[in-house]
Specification:
413 residues, alpha/beta, 10-stranded mixed sheet, 17 helices, 46% helix
Length: 413
């Protein structure tokens, strides 16, 4: 089965909408069902994945829905940015930190009030389409991942065909669910910025936040659900990441840059990177290492069979073929040029955290919910997909097509 894996990234999720739009224009997919039996996502990827699953029977309609969502998005669709709301939250925060030891704390749930996002998504997403797609057979499973604030585990809520796989590991749990808007909102609840969301978990209920926090292996849910081919759409420019590494770690004293002490905004941006961007890179590195292992050990297949038969705690390893689409341009730099479009109240707070260098303006890129910015990212995603459209079409249409076969273990931690 072919799976679509959509990663986290806050406002950067608009890039994925552009990629999906271009893929949906492939002649073989026009007015046809989405070519993905499995869809998994976390954070912004959960929103995008739920949107595609809800219109699974017509990929073109699904991609147009995604573009509409992101192209019309403004800050007031995501959180309250008016002065009254911000001052009220700031007063509660000051009371918690200043007098919490005397009068009690816990008044502040988050830095912003994200109630507008519920209304925006509720107006645009018709999630009953997910159940229709599963019933009609086009969609095998949709997996939405959120982080449990009490256990610290990654919970993947799965709606799919009867008998679909479930799992419970030390850091990851899968539960059957009828995917609703609160599941999507929980997965997209950026820690500290947005409040936790209460969800049913078995016979009880618990509070959840952004799915990217603990999902250190974003490809894992799709693989566990049975995928042997993965189309993953990331939101990080690899060339930009390599450039930052060269500037931070230079072995040539004559060309070593004079790096300044990072402001708090840059530190927060690095924290957001650790949550949203780094996991896909490390997971793909793992796939590459395993692929090299396969090339050097021709007898591995028989060895794996023996291990699988003798160890009931581990599922067998199998070949998984990945194809990854990532931005060709640095989204942080795009955000830097448009940061003046943030609401004044939010921009005032951001200015107080200091000004990072352009390539390290990641915090802005996650929180810049603005239609001009998101349209830029949609266009970037569309162009990047267009550059590789023949490769993408071959991957999705030809069962024998292979990029770089990768051996991976379904039960990997």
């Amino acid at each position: 089965m072919t799976a679509l894996v959509l990663t986290a990234g806050g406002a950067r999720g608009a890039y994925q909408a552009g990629v999906m739009k271009r893929i949906s224009e492939i002649p073989a997919f026009v007015d046809q069902a989405a070519p993905f039996s499995i869809i998994t996502g976390a954070s912004a990827g959960a929103i995008n994945g739920a949107a595609i699953a809800s219109q699974h029977d017509n990929f073109g309609v699904a991609s147009k829905l995604l573009v509409k969502l992101w192209a019309s998005l403004e800050a007031n669709n995501v959180y309250r940015s008016d002065a009254f709301a911000m001052m009220k939250n700031a007063a509660s925060l000051a009371l918690d930190f200043g007098l919490g030891g005397l009068v009690g704390a816990g008044r502040v749930k988050s830095l912003v009030d994200s109630s507008p996002l519920y209304a925006f998504l509720n107006q645009n997403l018709k999630l009953d389409g997910i159940r229709r797609a599963v019933k009609e057979g086009g969609l095998y499973a949709l997996g939405i991942t959120a982080t449990g604030y009490h256990t610290g585990r990654a919970f993947t809520f799965v709606e799919g065909k009867p008998g679909h796989p479930l799992w419970s590991k030390s850091r990851r749990v899968a539960l059957p669910a009828e995917i609703t808007l609160p599941h999507v909102l929980a997965s997209a609840a950026i820690p500290i910025v947005f409040p936790p969301v209460e969800l049913p978990a078995g016979a009880a209920s618990a509070f959840f936040g952004d799915g990217a926090m603990r999902l250190v292996t974003p490809l894992s849910p799709a693989i566990r659900l049975g995928a042997d081919r993965l189309l993953a759409v990331g939101v990080r420019c690899q060339e930009s990441a390599n450039s930052l590494l060269r500037s931070e770690w230079s072995q040539d004293a004559d060309f070593a840059p004079n790096l300044k002490r990072p402001p708090l905004s840059q530190i927060c941006g690095t924290l957001m990177n650790a949550i949203f961007l780094d996991h896909l890179d490390s997971d793909l590195d793992h796939l590459k290492r395993m692929n090299s292992f396969v090339a050097e050990h021709e007898k591995l297949a028989s060895l794996v069979d023996l291990v699988a038969e003798s160890d009931s705690d581990h599922e067998p390893m199998r070949i998984v073929t990945p194809l990854v689409i990532s931005p060709s341009a640095d989204i942080a730099i795009i955000a830097k040029t448009l940061q003046h479009r943030m609401p004044k109240t939010i921009r005032y707070v951001m200015d107080g955290l200091g000004t990072p260098d352009a390539q390290s303006a990641d915090l802005t890129s996650f929180l810049l919910f603005d239609s001009e910015f998101t349209r830029e990212l949609i266009q970037l995603g569309y162009r990047d997909a267009a550059q590789r459209i023949d490769e993408i079409e071959a991957f999705l249409r030809d069962p024998d097509y292979a990029t770089a076969p990768t051996l991976t273990e379904v039960a990997t931690e």
